[in-house]
Amino acid sequence: xxxxxxxxxxxxxxVANVFFPISKVYPKPRPxxxxxxxxxxxxxxxxxxxxxxxxxxxxxxxATATEAMAEPAxxxxxxRQRTREETEGVEExxxxxxxxxxxxxxxxxxxxxxxxxxxxQVDSLAIEKEVKQKMYRKVDVLEAIPRMPDFIVALxxxxxxxxxxxxxxCTVLGTxxxxxxxxxxGVPVDPLSAPGKxxxxxxxxxxxxxxxxxxxxDTADYSAVATNxxxxxxxxATVTVRSAxxxxxxxxxxxxxxxxxxxxxKLEVSLVDCxxxxxxxxxxxxxxxxxxxxxxDLPNLPPLVEWYRDDKLLQPGPLVxxxxxxxxxxxxxxxxxxxxEGLYTIRVYTKDGTSEHCAYLFVSDATPPVAGAPGAPMSxxxxxINSDYVLVAWKPPNTVxxxxxxxxxxxxxxxxxxxxxxxxxxxxxxxxxxxxxxxxGHSYRFRVRAVNSSGISRASRPSDRVTALDAVESxxxxxxxxGVPSAPGQPVATRNTRSSAFVQWEAPKHxxxxxxGYYIDGRxxxxxxxxxxxxxPFKLNRFxxxxxxxxxxxxxxxxxxxxxxxxxxxxxxxxxxxxxxxGGGFEYATPSSPYGISLLNCDGSSMTVSWSSxxxxxxxxxxxxxxxxxxxxxxxxxEVNTSGIVDRVCTVDNLTEGTFYEFxxxxxxxxxxxxxxxPSLPMKCEAWTFEQPGPAYDLTFSEVRSHSLVLVWKxxxxxxxxxxxxxxxxxxxxxxxxxxxxxxxPISQRYMQVRDLxxxxxxxxxxxxxxxHGIGRPSLVTEAVCARPPPGTKEIVAGVDEExxxxxxxxxxxxxxxxxxxxxxxxxxxxxxxxxVTVTTKGRTSRLSFINPDKDDLGRYSVLVTDxxxxxxxxxxxxxxxxxxxxxxYAIRNPIVPLKHGLNYEVLEKGHVRFWVQAIKLTxxxxxxxVVNDKEVTSGEGHKISHDVSTGVIQMIVDNFTRDSEGxxxxxxxxxxxxxxxxxxxxxxxxxxxxxxxxxxxxxxxRKQGAHFSESVSFTVTDDCTVMLxxxxxxxxxxxxxxxxKEDEEIVPETPPNVMSGACALPIPLFSRKDQGVYKAVIGDxxxxxxxxxxxxxxxxxxxxxxxxxIAGESASELVVQCTPEGIRLQCYMNYYTExxxxxxxxxxxxxxxxxxxxxxxxxxxxxMQICDPSDKEKGLYTIEISDGVKTHARTFxxxxxxxxxxxxxYLRLKAAAFAEKNRGRVLGGLPDVVTIMxxxxxxxxxxxxxxxxxxxxxxxxxxxxxxxxxxxxxxDGGKFSSLVINQVTxxxxxxxxxxxxxxxGGEFVEITVSVxxxxxxxxESKLGQPxxxxxxxxxxxxxxxxxxxxxxxxxxxxxxxxPASTPxxxxPAPxxxxPATxxxxPAPxxxxPAPxxxxPAPxxxxPAPxxxxPAPxxxxPAPxxxxPAPxxxxPAPxxxGIKSPTPLGKxxTPxxxxPxxxxxxxxxxxxxxxPxxxxxxxxPxxK
Length: 1488
Description:
Layout: H1 2-25, H2 38-50, H3 58-69, H4 84-135, E1 147-153, E2 158-161, E3 166-175, E4 179-184, E5 187-188, E6 198-203, E7 206-211, E8 220-228, E9 231-242, H5 248-252, E10 268-274, E11 278-281, E12 286-295, E13 304-309, E14 312-313, E15 321-325, E16 328-333, E17 342-350, E18 353-364, E19 378-383, E20 389-395, E21 405-414, E22 421-422, E23 432-436, E24 443-452, E25 455-456, E26 466-467, E27 492-497, E28 500-504, E29 517-524, E30 531-532, E31 542-545, E32 553-562, E33 565-566, E34 576-577, E35 595-602, E36 607-612, E37 624-631, E38 638-639, E39 649-652, E40 660-669, E41 672-676, E42 683-684, E43 697-702, E44 709-714, E45 724-733, E46 740-741, E47 751-754, E48 762-771, E49 774-778, E50 785-786, E51 797-800, E52 807-812, E53 822-826, E54 829-830, E55 837-842, E56 845-850, E57 859-865, E58 872-877, H6 879-893, E59 899-907, E60 913-919, E61 927-932, E62 935-937, E63 943-948, E64 953-958, E65 967-975, E66 978-986, H7 988-1007, E67 1012-1021, E68 1027-1034, E69 1041-1046, E70 1049-1051, E71 1063-1068, E72 1077-1085, E73 1088-1096, ...
Helix pairs in contact: 1-2, 2-4
């Protein structure tokens, strides 16, 4: 049964398919062939089945058919009687017809039943809704009052595409209820005149007219007229139907989604609240919504909705989500990428056809992972798939302000894995890459990342999954060797809407093969930053740029893209302003269709056609034409030109000879592309070989008057076998085919003034071309023209300008539009850009002015006003008239005052500005005036105006030149009848420069009234490399003060500045980086003060360092060698050295960098470079280079041969001596210098010793060795701690004790004075105070174990050393140390034991020394608690209460007596040493 329901639709489609091509092949209708009487009836039934407004039932149709068959019988002649077989065929045909009629009747009854049921349900729902509303509404008594119709909701205009439905609806109220009738162009709409075309509905006061499958012919003004007994009301609206190339996105960018198939629907669907142009960002989501009105709205039967992107049908998937429900169609893109950018179209299948809406989705780049990185590539696809090889290709991103792309990285990911592997080690520069090493049978996805100098972009969207399998034959994608394409042509931008612009351009001349598309960039005029208009290559060469700002002016550029990258940018387009309307606040329309398409030439493979301009330009200038063609045997139109054509002539190439073609043309203006013309007559592509010329074309009228007009045409394209020799012009009255030749002989010019016309009569014209072989084909006949001038027509006026003396021709147009232009011609040839004339237009008047006119300017001049109803005029300039005007021009121009110098300015002292002009000659009767910003200035307060007749100078001095003085300065001079005027414009940067100079002169004048700087602060460098900041002062007196500041902190020099000398200086010795800063000199007194600043940084600091380097380099000494225990040192002495100087050390022409091996340093007096642990590799020539920015000062030393040998031996000797000093035996601490103890107490002298190897320790008393016994016990623990313990001391134990510590590298001798006093005795006052530390004496290496004095001579050094040598009697001096003691029994050896001050102090040794565990106490002030802290002894002594010591011997070997007896200054100890004692008074207080 379902199949039977659709049978009528299929039959109707078949009938349409049968008849439609016939109408296309044969444009003119032919008489129909005789058909059996049943066939028209069957066609009538099939067509009436499709009528929406048909109310006939099946029974009525059947009755009609029965009546047709029941007509009186017709007697068939004998010669026409049919045979039995023919009779049976007719009977069979009738039986089939009856069966079809019964089936149609059953189907129609079923459909009628469904309609009644649906209408009942809709009416029931509407009644219920109305009842609910009225339950809460009060009865309005005014409803019963009679009133005339009133449109509550009026009609609104619609613009739709071909084959789309449109619904016009309105709401009207009135009492009684009005009756609404519909009109199209003033003609009533009859649904029966075009079955299925119109549907009229009226429900609950809402009246609607539905036009299904609109055609261009449906473009008209539609009106609804409501009428009742009290009056009539009308509502009107315009419906515009555009074809596939008539405008908007589909026409402008050439994308028209094709129908994916035939889909029938029983629902009436309308699109409302559709999605606009949308802007998104990569990684985000976007939703495109469109509200639907569905009748009837059945939950289980949603409408069929399809979504397209760039004419490609979208399918649901992970990246695309589609849904239809709740009267909303939704498309969700959850993860936007630039691949998603494009034109999106929603198509809904309805009962009347399809409804569509389209808008563009722009996707911009997301924030790059690295600033300045490019955008992500796009459209990654795999080609040439093999078992181990895949070719990956992609499209490059657009780069606007980022750095150029240097290459791409390709990544792959195996299926069921989330890890991406980079395929190429180095970036690939082209947009394709062969990926090798794949596993056969495995599936992969690929992605691409772009690289530039700033970093790597985000990854592209992964490609579709591909499986590595062998292909029998796969076409490999081989790239072209052309490289990147050339730049596209200069784009042309025109206005589209209030927020968009239409941009079109020419394709690149080279590299079109494999072209992926174009990138369009834009920027606001005045800005340097470009922005991307699209982020995905666009394939066509015209594009609509959305999202522009109203009121801004933009320019655009284009880049072409192929597999090798982006082309160079095209030239910028002309600026275009985005305005709300093209004129006075209203939008203009697209132009009407062109007409008069004619064939001008044909060579068998191409045809040249021309056409006439549209009758209506739409309110803006026509900027381009677009031509389409088609074979008469096909229905598909093809574009001839993708870029606009300016001229109305086009040559169509690549045609098939012998084929008939049709052409149509569209015109474009600033509002868009207009309607196409009617198709031309079929034209056969056949080569023209005849000898006569082809037709002339583009016949136009101008200067139409009551009895004359001018006809202008263009020469034929096809000239025949010889050149064109002339033209014949034929004329006929409108409606007549009898043409009369207006000239007996051919004329050579391509224009003719036709005279003797009848006023008000209509005429048509044609032109025939003549050559040596005869008269050629006539041109197309022009449209009829009426011999009547436009109202208010005026003629051209010739004259001379009274002010300038220019000779001109002027026309005041009687009619003009906002887009009109005045086109001047000479002898009916457009003048264009000509250096002999200038054209100026103001309002309705246009003037053609001559520049130095002469006889060459004689001729006939005409002017045509475009976009008007033929406003034009002409004027013949004769020689007599020109001579008269030349005399008048000379008389006007000569009376002037000749100027030697135009108006100029000069800045004077005190900031006054002088404006002056100089004439060649002035008379005493001269008058003049100065005008500033259109306001006359007179001499008075603030202005002084004067002149000098002898010099011809006229001047004005402005005393107070301020910001209000900006503007235009004009001087007007009148000397008798002669006049002169000169102006000077001081605005912008020019005015600011003058104002700055005037204010500077004013400040200088005020500043010089008191003490001031005649020369600002600058620097000089003296011979000793002292930097001097100097300045000069003037107008000073004794009371004048002078101060120096650095960073606003005052500097007081040692020598006060003497301002009376006129010069002041600030010395900066030992200049270095710490002296950078802003220095300021301030001078002042009661008259005021002046300041001069000097910023020592940047280039100034470098200049000072270079000046120091120049003096230091000139004073530099030759390099000398100095050896140290660490290595060999090269030294260069100079007046001054600082590390900021550009100093370079070289070894054998190789630059030396400071390192552990080569140390570089210096002092204020020298620069040095030390070779640590030298070897033979370090031999060679050494150079120091000191650069002063201009010259390089070099000093060299050849460290090789004997010089190297001697230096190396000295280094070894010093190294050995340092090693011996480091490892000799020594006392680290713990012994006091003087000990005072009560008898019967126990005395413990304990100290820490050190040496490598372990030293030998010997104790002495009064230079006699002490033996260990019960009374005197000697211990030496662990090779570190040595003790002398005396039990129950007696006065006999008093004396000088000493300890001798030595090993094979030397030793040390320390003395301690012990005093024992009896019970009851008091300590003498002279012995109170801080005890002294024991004084060690250094013992050189000796085999003698006794503490006998010895002298070791150290050979003197032959070379100068930065580290002074030790004293002659000691090979290893003891340096100073103030390190406090620690409580550790084993201190770390960091520094040698300190020695006290002496007349010959020992210098620091390069050998690091251990910390002393027993620091020297501070004298004479006793330290708190313990003057001499000592480490804990490993062998503690028993505690005795009789000893006056606060420190128990068990904890420390050194008694902590608060009143120790200081060591008396006694004669030199028994062991004499030239080295000063080891322990010294330390400035650091003891640390507990």
